[in-house]
Amino acid sequence: MPIVKGRAGELRALHEIDEPTASLVMPLVEVPLRVQDSESDDADSAGVDADLQKFASDLRKSWSPDRRIVFDASAVPALPGDVPTAWLVNTLAGANYEVTPTVRLSDTSWAVESIGKAIREWSLKSACIRLGGDDLDDNDMPLADAVDQLLEQLGLEPTDVDLVLDFGPVQDEQAMSFAARIARLVLSELPHRDGWRTLVCASGAF
Question: Residue 95 to residues 33, 99, 153: CA-CA distances in angstroms?
């Protein structure tokens, strides 16, 4: 699972993946708060909605609708009744794209409920739970209970979900070794360890 920013260069790279490889790849695309250097023909306008519209337009140009793609809109502020992830589910699924929205333990209950409603409306039976350092450090309940609560809010089973453990960038071998130890601890606490659709441990370096 390659994790990329949803900017013009990265989306162009997805578009240029050749057919045999593209059929084996399921990217996770992070929706930036401001999409810069967009290839969209839409006029630029202020506000979050314009950014989401440009991202959705560029994504449709970059990826085939019959290949599943995961997106993460957590960088875009959400408000009650205006949840960017739910908006993108409705927009992309309405264009017959096979999309998987990402949720996090830090998401508010009303945001998760809105995303779950959009998933059910389009009969997607698909989501990605992305666990990062903040999610693991700041949660008030045991990890297994928090993940099960999220599944219940979404109305999904583990077999409908891609679980991503994201340890962020690592700067050297010591940081990589530490991330590996943390990964083993987290994996030991996860519920349904053999039941997820996919289980991904992600990290990167610059």
Answer: 22, 10, 25
Among 38-42, 67-71, 172-176, 191-195, where is mean pLDDT lowest? 38-42
Instruction: Give the residue among 55, 49, 127 at the shortest CA–CA distance from 81.
Output: 49
In whole angstroms, what is the distance from residue 172 CA to residue 26 CA? 27
Distance, first Cα to last Cα, the chain: 18
pLDDT tens digit sequence for 16-66 = 999 888 889 999 999 987 644 555 555 444 444 448 988 999 999 999 999
Backbone angle region of 123, left / alpha / beta, with phi > 0 → left and psi within -120 to 50 → alpha: left
User: Amino acid letter at 90?
Assistant: N
Q: What is the pTM for the complete model shown? A: 0.86
Separation between Cα atoms, residue 97 and residue 114, nearest integer Å: 19
Dihedrals phi, psi of 85, to nearest 5 degrees: -60, -45
Q: Which two tokens stand for residue 183?
A: 């990964």
Q: What's the longest Cα–Cα distance across the chain?
A: 49
Asked if 165 contacts 134 with a C-beta cutoff of 8 angstroms, the reply is no
> Rounded to whole angstroms, how far apart are CA atoms 76 and 188?
32
Residue 65 amino acid letter: P
